[in-house]
Amino acid sequence: MAKQRIVSTSINGNPVEFLAAPRQTLLEVLRDNLDLIGTKEGCSNGNCGACTVIFNGRPVDSCLVLAVEAEGGELETIEGVAPTDGLHVIQDAFLGQAALQCGICTPGFIMSTKALLEENASPSEDEIRFHLAGNLCRCTGYDKIVRAVQQAAEGVTN
Amino acid sequence: MRDFEYEAPMSLDDAVALLSGNPAAAKPLAGGTDLIDHIRTRRLEPDLVVDVKKIPDLNVLEFGDDGLRLGAAVPCYRIYGDPQVAAAYSALADSCRIIGGTQIQSRASVGGNLCNSGPAADSTPSLIALGARVVIAGPGGRREVAAEDFCTGPGQNVLESGELVVEIVFPARPAVGGSHYRRFIPRNEMDIAVVGVGAAVELDESGQSFVSARIALAAVAPTPLYVEAAGAALSGQPVSDEAIAAAADAAREAATPIDDMRGTVEFRKHISGVLTDRVIREAVARARGEETGYRIGQ
Amino acid sequence: MATVEDRQFRVEPFPGGTPGNQRLVEEGRLPDYDVVGTRPIRHDGTDKVTGRARYGADIKLSGLLQGYVLRSPHAHARIVSIDTSKAAEVPGVHAVCTNADMPSADHRAGDLGEGIVDWYHLNQNVLANDKVLYTGHAVAAVAADSVHIAEEAARLIEVEYEVLPPVLDVREARGADAPVLNDDVRTDLQPAGETGDTPTNVAKHFHYEKGDVDAGFAAAELVIEREFTTETVHQGYIEPHTATAFWSPDGKITVWTSTQGSFMIRMQVAELLDVPISKVKVVPMEIGGGFGGKIAVYLQPVAAVLSKLSGRPVKLNMDRSNVFDATGPTPGSYMKVKIGVDAEGKITAGEAELLFEAGAFPGSPINPGCMCVFACYDVPNGRIDGYDICVNKPRTNAYRAPGSTHVALATETIVDEICEAQGICPVEFRLKNAVKEGDERVDGVTYPPVGMWETIKAVELSDHWQSPLEGPNRGRGIASGFWFNFGGNSVVAATVNEDGTVSLIEGSTDIGGSRASVAMQLAEILGIAAEDVTPTVVDTDSIGHTDVTGGSRTCHATGLAAIKAAEDIQAQLCQRAAMLWDVESEQVEYGDGATLTGPEGKTISFQEIAGKLTQTGGPVVGRGSVNADKHGGAFGTHIADVEVDPDTGKVQVLRYTVVQDVGTAIHPSYVEGQMQGGAAQGIGWALNEEYHYGDDGRLHNASFLDYRIPTCYDLPDIETIIVEVPNPGHPFGVRGVGEVPIVPPPAAMANAIFRATGVRMRSLPMSPPKVLHELLSSDG
Question: Which of C18, C41, C673 sits opposite A95 (nearest CB)?
């Protein structure tokens, strides 16, 4: 079996070292080795976005990243989004707009939304829908998610 | 997932050495958006994965008067995120905007899309239409092939054992030129092309006549398909419904699709013509600097 | 009393929503509640937006092993032999199991709440015995130190198959020459109760008849008969199935899983492993969507068997392709439906023949399909025959209003065709034929007060219907749909805390905000804030038997239990106040504003008395236990605007409005969310979702890439109009909301496509190749 590697990263602003075998995906290591279970598995092949994390400033599907590729990188997961004294404006917006039902896709949507608003603080509805097309939700029909992203964008710009 | 070793060389020479030292069982990893899934599902069974993203040569994105150099591992978002590249090579940017979702575009590369050599690859028709050449490095040194000559069959290409793609080079954009890539999919995003069409046109100074045109199709043949006859139907002709229809006919004629769950032969041939017509019109509009209100997915 | 036609209605924004969220209001009649109808933040919301909520796959236990299930590559084959010896020898492997490691099961029926299951068949579905009946059918399982080791070991299991020809189409499977999947299946004719005597794929035949059908058609001025087909579709929840089990040396089995019904999992695990239910504890984790697909067991008994063999807890996760290949999609179908109308556009008769795929084992939702096919209309004479037919696909399951979406496609497009032929407005036709209180369905059920007519009225008054749709290749369609909804068993226990709050425990797993809607009903009765109730979903040892979160029953039935618990608290608090005031408890009243009043102007608030419970006899626990049987059926009518690309056949949805009678909306945001989400699933079913099988019975699109559920870039805003015709069987009038909204979309979209193109689509999905084919054929 291939030897495990020591991987040095920053996760949610904290330096983290972990052991990973080459065949372990970043998703598997986050969940199984590092107990960061907020990142969810929906499809394992990059079609649902439930496992979205921000890797070196970009949203990625962590199921399609090898954990060893994180060496020297910066990772942000759902666990790092809320400030210590409350919720992030995006999280507040998802709650206020009832933008979740079962909630399994929610961490991924919040990470994708965060990446979107960091790049484009006032996206149009069309831009929101295009950007979030890599995140599947089967419960909401997306309407309230789009409202939440719009509300969050207002919160980010104000 | 199947067990494998992982290396991340810092230089091209090291990468070539790793790949050629283990030619049958080594696979280069760029964005990984195809490779990792293929290993998971056992479509590929490498013993060694060579991460090529740390090699400077593969990360080049240089726009200049003489053209564009695109490193094989440059992810899609950097390509459409570069305003000069997106303006001058808009077909390429069109492709990069629709490969997977935003998350995929953070990682997936045009080089990887090319080397995966799927018939439905979204960026390869744009490379062909834009006249790109593929720079290959291997144990025997460097060589170049035209983009249309790179793929040889579904999942197959001209790479010899131990070789990898370093970069893709594009000629300078013509004075009055425009390009576009569009695919037909049942949804508006997140699908494999049922048919894809890339076109690059050069117009005369008046913008009223085609000087030249190159057109390529995806998902209608065992490889991305360069349809020389479609470009020839436009070259030297005034921009007209007749000329565009002739090009669309040529594309439809050239298409030799298969029946599968994504589309029937009847449907794919029909769409080949429809899409070629639409893509040429958009490329012409872009050459003329006109807005068409094109929305991805429609 | 004025007839319904005389009453005055208007459509207005529903308070607290966006402009697209509206309601139908009857002049002079507005509901008057404090908590019901408001939009508090859901109690479990913060955990779910911060990643702290623990779903099925998130459970961690010391010594936990990971498992892998080996699945059949064949659609139909006899298992000649299985040799697991090489797998068992792999270092790191702790257990390997096959069907032989489970107790054998008998032919007995179990009721899972959204469908009947035969234990003998369920046993074989969980792990194949002598035959595999679909690709992906579980054959063996391995538990090991890591999932990677388990997978590599499973690949060393040698299974010898004798491959048999598969049958995939219901019409073929019904034929005399078709390969028979299960040699124990005989046709069961219902409701007559007769059983056939030869092996067959036709497991059930339901036959319903009302009135004089032939005379009804003879009296019709126009009779339209059409055939329809739909493909197998999947619920498509984002969370794959997962189960973790530990079989303790003391004989107790604990199962951690995401399920719609922890008590149904308990029953199935107990039955299949032949242990008493008291030896099984099911701990429901948060559930990432179900829609009817997370009721039956797949992994749970297998994880338990692996745990028994290894002595360690074992976790089994499906990946996405397993979910598509081997869980319970909802059936593909063939339907032939005939409707007759008189010169005034009044229905005179209806007839339907419905063939539903059962999948590998009997159990499709054919019976609800039969009962729903003419459920929206007053059909004086009707005949319905429905067949449940085994084919080499996974055993089908409920999917949101199971069976009703199929049949609505047939009925609602024929209705549209009648309107077109007779020159009647589709709204007018539906107003004229809508079922009302007292009408009898073909299957013999008489309607209590229902709101079908009101949903049509809301359509008529809506901005959407009144705004003209302009432009080429565009069309607007409407369609209606019905679902029974359900009541059933629910239990709630609620403890009053000394700080004036209430802890509510329940057995209903929360798929879409039911903690909030149940807590709100308790809060309304007690006169306290929704935020002062803390709802918790607990395991099967900690609360009484509660049926599935399904059948649109939870807000109704578990809500009823919460109301009873609140009333129990009220009665107990009155006794405590009586004790404090030294009066009889009958002299104390629990009144508005959460205030208890007694003789001589004595008052004490809920908060105050909550602080005095230890002095007056100890904590107060309210209990509510119901087997609810007064659920109200519900109707919805949708408006779809589409544009069809005439050159590609691709359909874009331009505008979409969901109108639904929900009885009473407890938490309007989550009611709207159900309406929007159901519509989105229905639109996906209408346009692009389908199982693609090869002739060899292999599923070709077991991924979210090629099983195309809508993305947010495929859909417009989905407008909602909540109609509130109270259910007399619930104190607040709750009917339930979850299922109806998936029913009308395919028919509404088909009708819109017709108005846009002149082409009638009678086969789902209405994907671009099929639409284009029809467009090109009609041009020729």
Answer: C41
Same-domain pairing of C131 and C278:
yes
pLDDT above 70: percentage of residues in chain C: 99
Residues C231 and C281 in one domain: no
Cβ atoms of B183 and B88 within 8 Å: the answer is no
Last residue of a domain, one of C628, C662, C696: C628
CATH architecture of B56-171: 2-Layer Sandwich (3.30)
pLDDT-derived band at C28 (thresholds 50, 70, 90) equals: confident
Tens digits of residue pLDDT in B1-39: 899 999 999 999 999 999 998 878 999 999 999 999 999
Neighbours of chain A (3+ CB pairs under 8 A): B, C
Please indicate whether, in this complex, the C-beta atoms of C712 and A43 are within 8 angstroms of each other.
no
> Does C45 reside within a domain?
no
Query: Per DSSP, what are the bridge partners of residue A15?
Result: A10
Domain boundary pick from A80, A110, A143: A80
The whole-number average pLDDT for the span A23-28 is 98
Same domain, C576 and C600: yes
Select from C18, C286, C287 the Cβ nearest to the Cβ of A147: C18
pLDDT at C332 over 70: yes
Q: How far apart are CA C396 and CA C170, in angstroms?
A: 13
Read off the CATH number of the domain in which C594 is found.
3.30.365.10
Residue C48 lies in a domain: no
Report pLDDT for C731.
Answer: 97
User: At how many degrees (to 10) do helices C452-461 and C426-433 cross?
Assistant: 160
Q: Yes or no: say if B93 and B80 are a contact pair by the CB < 8 Å rule.
A: yes
Task: Give phi and psi for C453, each to the nearest 5.
Answer: -60, -40
CB contacts under 8 A, C 149-188 vs B, are 151-152
Considering only CB atoms, which chain A residues are within 8 Å of C674? 101
Question: A 57-76 residues with CB below 8 A of C?
Answer: none
Checking if the pLDDT of C779 tops 70, the result is no
- Looking at the fold, whether C369 and C386 belong to one and the same domain comes out as yes
Place of tokens 């040569």: B57
Per-residue confidence band for C3, with pLDDT thresholds at 50, 70 and 90: low
Please state, rounded to an integer, the average pLDDT across all residues of chain C.
Answer: 96
Residue C462 predicted with pLDDT over 70 = yes
Residue C86 predicted with pLDDT over 60: yes
For residue C2, pLDDT beyond 60: no
Question: By 3-state DSSP, what share of chain A in percent is helix, strand and coil, each rounded to 5?
Answer: 40, 15, 40
| CATH code, residues B177-287 | 3.30.390.50
